[in-house]
């Protein structure tokens, strides 16, 4: 049986979400609450993200500048492919994650996951769309074809009910609206609990068989999957394989953050 869950913030999160929106509308920094210089000044900047953050908090963001060009794994220098991708390329064709999952980015993700904070989601969409736009202006990288449709990484229905929202859905819907792309929120469903991936080897993480199911063939040529965090890449890899088996020719993996390789 497939359960369709309507994505609405739980009532306990509404007050915090409105507080975040109040900051956004009154031009206070989303992270520290300090007063921004002026709306007019921030509108003149090239990057949308700076409209919601003060100069200091923006500089404190763990930007994922040096990363693998295939899976977006943070790298110490500008190296084309990480060791894992050199050994075996993932099923998805390219990945994008503007932040490393550390420091301020972890706090950011918690606000989306557990508070469904409207202003944080909006700023996250700004950051993602900035990164997507910049991706098409990288002379040393092959340019991906235009994305036709966006699919959020699905969440198991029981977990969705417990938390009150699916952060991947919230991000994906907002990005689809911003970029004016087709949005397929219920095309792929999670049919059972996903095994814990943390601490498993690369081989052991290939344990997602049967966790996800697709409802019908995909007509869009290029699909973008969206999540808040790419941790190991296994979920994105599995979903990309499902999309390609259903008819997609190209699959991108987009996320707000990417977990660095353990040291």
Automatic annotation (TrEMBL):
Keywords: Glycosyltransferase, Transferase. It is an enzyme of class 2 (transferase). Its EC number is 2.4.2.14. GO terms for molecular function: amidophosphoribosyltransferase activity. CDD domains: PRTases_typeI. Gene3D superfamilies: 3.40.50.2020. InterPro entries: ComF/GntX_DNA_util-trans, PRTase-like, PRTase_dom. It comes from the Bacteria. Belongs to the ComF/GntX family. This is Amidophosphoribosyltransferase.
């Amino acid at each position: 049986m497939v359960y369709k869950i309507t994505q609405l913030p739980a009532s306990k999160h509404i007050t915090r979400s409105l507080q975040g929106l109040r900051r956004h509308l009154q031009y206070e920094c989303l992270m520290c609450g300090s007063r921004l210089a002026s709306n007019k000044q921030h509108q003149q900047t090239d990057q949308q993200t700076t409209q919601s953050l003060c100069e200091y908090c923006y500089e404190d963001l763990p930007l994922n500048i040096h990363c693998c060009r295939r899976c977006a794994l943070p790298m110490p220098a500008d190296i084309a492919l990480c060791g894992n991708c050199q050994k075996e390329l993932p099923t998805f064709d390219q990945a994008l994650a503007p932040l490393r999952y550390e420091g301020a980015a972890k706090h950011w993700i918690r606000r989306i996951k557990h508070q469904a904070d409207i202003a944080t989601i909006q700023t996250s969409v700004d950051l993602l769309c900035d990164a997507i736009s910049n991706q098409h202006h990288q002379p040393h990288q092959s340019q991906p074809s235009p994305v036709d449709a966006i699919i959020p990484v699905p969440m198991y229905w029981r977990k969705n009910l417990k938390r009150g929202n699916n952060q991947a859905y919230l991000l994906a819907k907002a990005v689809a609206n911003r970029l004016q792309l087709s949005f397929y929120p219920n095309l792929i469903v999670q049919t059972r609990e996903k095994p814990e991936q943390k601490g498993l080897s690369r081989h052991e993480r290939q344990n997602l068989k049967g966790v996800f199911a697709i409802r019908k063939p995909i007509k869009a040529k290029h699909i973008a999957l969206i999540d808040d965090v790419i941790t190991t890449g296994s979920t994105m890899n599995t979903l990309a394989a499902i999309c390609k088996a259903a008819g997609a020719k190209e699959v991108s993996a987009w996320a707000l953050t990417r977990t660095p390789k353990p040291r």
